[in-house]
Amino acid sequence: MxxxxxxxxxxxxxxxxxxxxxxxxKETKQTSAWSKCxxxxxxEGKNILLYFEKPSLRTHLTFEMAVRNLGGNPIYFDNSKxxxxxxxxxxxxxxxxxxxxxxxxxxxxxxxxxxxxxYTNVPVINALSDLYHPCQALxxxxxxxxxxxxxxxxxxxxxIGEPNNVxxxxxxxxxxxxxxxxxxxxxxxxxxYLLLKQCQKLNPNIKVSCFIEDIKDFDVIYGDTWYSxxxxxxxxxxxxxxxYQINKALLTAxxxxxxxxxxxxxxxxxxxxxxxxxxxxxxQLAENRLWTEMSVLHYLFY
Length: 302
Ligand code: CP
Ligand code: NVA
What we know:
This protein is α/β, with parallel strands linked by helices and 302 residues long. The chain has 2 domains: 7-133 and 289-301, Rossmann fold (3-Layer(aba) Sandwich), CATH 3.40.50.1370; 136-285, 3-Layer(aba) Sandwich (Rossmann fold). The protein is 42% helix and 14% strand. The strands form 2 sheets. The chain has a 5-stranded parallel β-sheet. Helix 5 (134-148) packs across helix 11 and helix 6 packs parallel to helix 7. It starts with 11 loop residues before the first helix and ends with a helix. The model has no long low-confidence stretch (mean pLDDT 97). It binds phosphoric acid mono(formamide)ester (CP) and norvaline. Phosphoric acid mono(formamide)ester binds next to helix 2.
């Protein structure tokens, strides 16, 4: 049985196939050929739990759509209001009894996904945790392929801002695909040391730098919130990160054509309103969440 927890255990070939299939699904879904292929029936008769401990617009709605497009039945459960009524292991043991066929889970802790995997015996998909956001990263790379048309090894991607779950997953993808990847962040911040070393072993073109000039002439600059869900607001952090805001002057100085952001964004904090308005590829990325999630469901269930 397959799961999608981190992408670290996925081969380069599997990741490439997931993205190629996502492009094919995107193309076919808009045509009459869709009803004649097997995709609309892959999840026929299957109930997929969408278990969310945190808010979501994109991940929730695209997984609802993805499951329905493949003929399945999504069941949304908002666990944010449970206020710790029962431990993960009991939740998992209950879920296991109801004949659900798969679990898409957005959780505070990666360990919850591991508990679900251990006790439910159905595919578990990470829909964002404290450490990773693999579904996001798949859509990110699909979008970069559409934008640049470049081979993975020729692509140069910069993540700017505080390293977090989103940059961890981008880094894993870079490690697997050989993409040049730099995390540009203040010297006082750094990605998880062990994960960084593990990724650099697979791909030496993965770097961390506090110098903005180090990402000059890259193809894509990627931003995320400075305060992830559950993070405490500390004004000091915003001050430290101010020099790493994605704004027009920065883009001009760096000569970077494409801007991506996983959304939601905080206008005029990590990215300016002007940049968002001038870079519709940010919404192209949001669209591609749907196609990559359909590709993931196909891979896990077919
Ligand atoms: N990018 C992303 O995961 O968006 P949501 O938090 O709205 O799901
Ligand atoms: N890093 C952000 C991503 C939101 C999609 C968070 O975890 O809140």
